[in-house]
Amino acid sequence: MTNSEGVAKKLGLEKSEQGYDLSKESLLTAIGGPLGIAEAVLPAFSFSVVFAFSQQAVPAVIVAVGISVCFILYRLLQRKALTQAVVGLVAVGFAAFLALRDGGSAADYFVPGFITNASYGSVLLLSVLVGHPIMGYIGQLLFGLKDWRKNKGLKRKFTTVTLIWVGFFSLRLAVQLPLYFANEVELLAASRAIMGAPAYAGLLALTWVMLRKLAPSKAVD
Length: 221
Hints:
Blueprint: H1 3-10, E1 13-16, E2 19-22, H2 24-30, H3 33-54, H4 57-78, H5 83-100, H6 111-129, H7 134-143, H8 152-181, H9 185-194, H10 197-214, H11 217-220
Antiparallel strand pairs: 1-2
């Protein structure tokens, strides 16, 4: 798989005779497929449900970690790639440590997600501030727009797309951090689910619509 095809796959695109296209299948693959979505959603959802009934972090963490282990066992039995399940288990393990450590709370289970969103958003924002918006390089890989930085119009548009991604990660933090500090565990879990795979799929679709409009610009400008 080439670099451009790898980037396209992560954006929910598939190779076609015309270049790249967005389909329901490719978009579903980009957000992890049914199994990947379940791995991302079920541990946190189960954590919130168990905590809502028990008001205790220990049983909630045990259930969340147990579900992640089940996903790994399933992938082993089906001989599927283990990377996503192992990464998920490590994340759940770290979240469990934060929630169960001395002085920790159930809401701390969601701290790793804050770190992830802040990291992605910061990198994307930094790329804009230094004049190298990341989406410009993605456009270069997908459409061969090697001189996009010299074209003010293209650079401005790629900056806009990059800032939309910054806004996506920032919005997650803006909604979820107040819930965290208010110790609203159930609402925090619900917001994480809503702003997870469904919102990310919408972001990928919007990104493709905007990037596709820039493809002919190489011939025009």
